[in-house]
């Protein structure tokens, strides 16, 4: 793109007390392969060539609280994952190790937690 210096989103980075745990989880969930595996940094390659996911060690990581509560660790971001069949995708997510959130704000969306406690949403188009 002219005038932008060629900016392109490369990856979303999530902090975790153990970067390999959420990387392994999202690799199973999305069918993506680990590209980089270091003690404090793990990356997943997007097979379609789009932005990937990376996970970095955060020694002082605090799991966010959902739904949000005053004075507790707030959710800084979450992933929205588009699915073709919500029921099938939910079963797959749970088999991969996702934890279903007790609070579900919408009937057509399912909120889950990855192994580090990051929330993510599954929804149909």
UniProtKB/TrEMBL annotation:
<dbReference type="InterPro" id="IPR029068">
    <property type="entry name" value="Glyas_Bleomycin-R_OHBP_Dase"/>
</dbReference>
<feature type="domain" description="VOC">
    <location>
        <begin position="8"/>
        <end position="125"/>
    </location>
</feature>
<protein>
    <submittedName>
        <fullName>VOC family protein</fullName>
    </submittedName>
</protein>
<dbReference type="InterPro" id="IPR041581">
    <property type="entry name" value="Glyoxalase_6"/>
</dbReference>
<dbReference type="InterPro" id="IPR037523">
    <property type="entry name" value="VOC_core"/>
</dbReference>
<dbReference type="Pfam" id="PF18029">
    <property type="entry name" value="Glyoxalase_6"/>
</dbReference>
